[in-house]
């Protein structure tokens, strides 16, 4: 690693400590270090195809992680996003393959399902006052069960055989596949979608009145309530937004792989939670924020891509994901002190 | 020699001398009340006796043996028992009564790893009979009422063979009937030779239960003697001293129309209902001791707690079920726990000040940063927040400046009725005066102010009218100009309000004459 240029400003009285600098820019340094390492050791790393691949997978994680960021902002948590991704993947695939629907219904159904999951979560958490972790753990299992039950455990794909002997009437249509596989001006469409969502969510949370109220609700719920903020309404919105973005992620995932794989979103939960928590520390924000979440998912995406290239099996990658999440949590805890 | 005695107790915290040569003693089979205003040194004295803090000087003798306690456990072994005010902190709610009663032994007796449940239950049952409780020992503590929990703590204290028991505000949360029952049990235990140290602000009850009185003021004993021979008024005078006179107050004028009224407001904790009203521009104090239910009333008025009742603001009637509705109608609360309830600590002064103004400062939901900064800077200037910058993070401000921010967030809103709950808590003298002048100027602008406090001097200084609050009830509405500090203490301690209280007036006038 390069020597940090701390000695450049020695006369400054309130020079931030190395620890603080590391905290503020540690994520960026880590991303650069990881890219440098894989670039040197792996021949295929610095290729257009590989970067395009990394960006596509990042785009899905980021969409899901933005939803989690919203639930974290209101001091909640949503564990059910992974299952919601799976549900949305199955729902869009089923709409296309089993029911021959066009693009509109294919997008609408999973998004509505995502919103419904969000409403269910907020019913349990806001109305019935269940602890968020446990409530969404329960919905996570239930939703996963729903998509497995619907498909009887089988993936949905073009020309799949049906129980009655025939084959499925519909197929993945090009306009749907464009979302996850198409390109505009040489950039994957899903990456453009992600960038649009990141910028819109960032502007919304930073510059608008409702964005401000989301943060205030999470920072001190009682003070927010006594300031006349309808805190339960904002908490409900946050879980609905979380469900919506998870469903959007599920749509992009289905489009990217071109099939409706069961439980496809399961691994996205950990990646996006880690991304959102890594985001706490980016630029020293100290709170959940969308730009940080983007950098968090870039770090996760690059790391996982490189590890795959190094032939680290996916189950061993989980060890590294877990370690990164612990590190991010420790960092955000340290910042709070 | 029988009995407990503390001689020449001294204790300083830093430069502050909290106890200055205090003598105190308890005989077996008596109730000795220890009285004094907040800060008189009662808690310090009792903490020394319970082994929680070491004294600087002085000796503790119990039944002829001299002790120096270095831990609460040693005090317990010497026969001192403590029934704390918050009994829940002394019990394990998920365990049955008998395990709670025996809990101290689990912790301390190491030699007996195997317990006989039958013996333990029998022992607990016997102890429960001693404190007059007829509950099955297997009942879970969390299913017991507050009164029962208190007696369980008492039984627990007796189980460790305490001969001298400290009761700290034992009746603070009890109903009249429960208080009677507690007194009967105290009498019973007195017969068995237990000595009690009784701490309470409810002076009426003290007169009834106590055999002897010791009154502390500023770390010294100012009265020591029989309890029943001393009239209530004299107890109050000893507690407060006659040094202070009522500050000369400029008369304020306020409107004659009723701007705010609340009827049948339920206070969930005490189960009582409250009616109150205030004129336009009037500063109305709600005076009560700690635990009288002031915060509960304030939070019920803003509908932060579960409550019921009817509100009237400027002639319009409302029923509120959330702060959102109450604030929309023109109420606001400056809460007691400002860091926990009033501030967004990691945010800037600006964000905290503009939380209620965002609609006005934004167009199409987009906040205008320039307008927001201008608004916040204006408020910072007019409130005199120090440092005079709206970008400071609120966490780094002093208590007084934090309080200004909490108040400031309501100044440019449509709030018409301001509820201040202990607004001077934890802020310095200078900031107090600034808070008072903000409150006065609000009232002068025609806003209505309700001021909840147990700081009686401050109530008399700020308020036009004072409600007396005792045990979740408002007992009287009195003009502040006709009240003295001693009267206020007397009324809030449970003294009869319609008794002629001329003795206080005499004392104050005498005192005033000396000073002038």
Automatic annotation (TrEMBL), chain B:
UniProt keyword annotations, A-Z: ATP-binding, Nucleotide-binding
Gene Ontology, cellular component aspect: plasma membrane
GO terms assigned for molecular function: ATP binding; ATP hydrolysis activity
Catalytic activity reported: ATP + H2O + (2R,4S)-2-methyl-2,3,3,4-tetrahydroxytetrahydrofuran-[AI-2-binding protein]Side 1 = ADP + phosphate + (2R,4S)-2-methyl-2,3,3,4-tetrahydroxytetrahydrofuranSide 2 + [AI-2-binding protein]Side 1
Family in the record: Belongs to the ABC transporter superfamily. AI-2 autoinducer porter (TC 3.A.1.2.8) family.
PANTHER family: AUTOINDUCER 2 IMPORT ATP-BINDING PROTEIN LSRA (PTHR43790:SF2), CARBOHYDRATE TRANSPORT ATP-BINDING PROTEIN MG119-RELATED (PTHR43790)
Protein name: Autoinducer 2 import ATP-binding protein LsrA
């Amino acid at each position: 690693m390069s020597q940090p240029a701390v000695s450049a400003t020695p006369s400054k009285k309130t020079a931030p400590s190395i620890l603080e600098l590391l905290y503020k820019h540690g994520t960026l340094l880590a991303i650069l270090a990881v890219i440098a390492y894989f670039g040197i050791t792996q021949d295929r790393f610095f290729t257009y195809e590989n970067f395009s691949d990394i960006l596509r997978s990042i785009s899905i994680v980021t969409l899901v992680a933005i939803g989690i960021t919203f639930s974290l902002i209101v001091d909640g948590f949503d564990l059910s996003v992974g299952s919601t991704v799976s549900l949305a993947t199955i729902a869009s695939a089923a709409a296309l393959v089993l029911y021959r629907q066009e693009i509109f219904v294919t997008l609408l159904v999973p998004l509505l399902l995502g919103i419904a999951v969000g409403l269910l979560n907020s019913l349990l958490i806001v109305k019935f006052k269940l602890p968020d972790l446990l409530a969404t753990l329960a919905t996570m299992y239930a939703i996963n069960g729903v998509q497995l039950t619907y498909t009887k455990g089988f993936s949905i794909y073009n020309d799949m055989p049906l129980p009655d002997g025939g084959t499925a009437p519909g197929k993945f249509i090009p306009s749907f596949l464009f979302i996850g596989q198409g390109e505009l001006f040489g950039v994957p469409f899903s990456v453009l979608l992600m960038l649009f969502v990141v910028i819109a969510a960032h502007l919304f949370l930073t510059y608008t009145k409702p964005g401000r109220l989301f943060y205030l609700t999470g920072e001190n719920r009682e003070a927010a309530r006594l300031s006349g903020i309808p805190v339960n309404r904002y908490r409900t919105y946050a879980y609905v937004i979380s469900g919506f973005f998870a469903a959007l992620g599920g749509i992009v995932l289905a489009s990217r792989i071109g099939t409706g794989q069961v439980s496809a979103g399961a691994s996205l939960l950990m990646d996006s939670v880690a991304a959102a928590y890594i985001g706490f520390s980016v630029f020293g924000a100290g709170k959940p924020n969308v730009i940080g979440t983007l950098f968090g998912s870039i770090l996760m995406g690059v790391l996982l891509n490189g590890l795959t290239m190094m032939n680290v099996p996916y189950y061993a990658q989980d060890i590294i994901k877990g370690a990164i999440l612990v590190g991010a949590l420790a960092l955000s805890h340290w910042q709070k002190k | 020699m029988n009995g407990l005695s503390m001689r020449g107790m001294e204790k300083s915290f830093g430069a502050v001398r909290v106890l200055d040569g205090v003598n105190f003693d308890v005989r077996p089979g008596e109730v000795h009340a220890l009285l004094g205003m907040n800060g008189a040194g009662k808690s310090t004295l009792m903490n020394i006796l319970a082994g929680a803090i070491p004294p600087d000087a002085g000796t503790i003798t119990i039944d002829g043996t001299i002790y120096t306690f270095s831990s609460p456990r040693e005090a317990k072994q010497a026969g001192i028992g403590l029934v704390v005010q918050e009994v829940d902190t002394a019990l394990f709610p998920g365990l049955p009564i008998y395990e709670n009663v025996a809990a101290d032994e689990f912790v301390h007796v190491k030699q007996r790893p195997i317990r006989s449940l039958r013996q333990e239950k029998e022992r607990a049952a016997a102890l429960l009979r001693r404190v007059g409780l007829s509950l099955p020992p297997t009942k879970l503590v969390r299913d017991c009422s507050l009164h029962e929990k208190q007696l369980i703590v008492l039984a627990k204290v007796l189980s460790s063979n305490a001969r001298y028991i400290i009761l700290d505000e034992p009746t603070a949360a009890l109903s009249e009937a429960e208080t009677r029952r507690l007194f009967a049990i105290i009498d019973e235990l007195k017969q068995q030779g237990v000595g009690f140290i009784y701490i309470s602000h409810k002076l009426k009850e003290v007169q009834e239960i106590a055999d002897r009185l010791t009154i502390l003021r500023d770390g010294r004993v100012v009265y020591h003697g029989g309890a029943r021979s001393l009239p209530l008024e004299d107890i109050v005078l000893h507690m407060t001293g006659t040094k202070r006179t009522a500050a000369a107050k400029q008369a304020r004028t306020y409107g004659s129309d009723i701007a705010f009224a609340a009827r049948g407001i339920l206070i969930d904790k005490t189960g009582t209902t409250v009616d109150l009203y205030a004129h336009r521009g009037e500063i109305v104090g709600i005076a009560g001791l700690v635990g009288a239910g002031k915060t509960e009333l304030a939070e019920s008025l803003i509908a932060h707690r579960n409550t019921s009742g009817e509100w009237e603001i400027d002639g319009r009637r409302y029923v509120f079920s959330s702060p959102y509705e109450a604030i929309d109608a023109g109420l606001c609360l400056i809460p007691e726990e400002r860091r926990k309830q009033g501030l967004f600590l990691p945010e800037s002064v600006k964000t905290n000040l503009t939380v209620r103004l965002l609609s006005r400062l934004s167009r199409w939901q987009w906040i205008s940063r320039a307008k927001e900064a201008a608004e916040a800077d204006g408020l910072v200037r007019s409130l005199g927040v120090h440092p005079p910058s709206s970008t400071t993070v609120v966490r780094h401000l002093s208590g007084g400046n934090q309080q200004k921010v909490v108040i400031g967030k309501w100044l440019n809103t449509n709030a018409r009725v301001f509820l201040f709950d202990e607004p001077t808590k934890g802020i310095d003298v200078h900031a107090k005066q600034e808070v008072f002048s903000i409150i006065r100027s609000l009232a002068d602008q025609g806003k209505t102010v309700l001021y909840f406090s147990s700081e009686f001097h401050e109530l008399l200084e700020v308020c036009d009218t004072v409600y007396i609050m005792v045990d979740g009830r408002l007992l009287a509405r009195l003009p502040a100009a006709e009240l003295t500090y001693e009267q206020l203490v007397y009324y809030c301690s449970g003294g009869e309000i319609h008794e002629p209280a001329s003795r206080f007036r005499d004392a104050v006038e005498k005192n005033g004459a000396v000073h002038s």
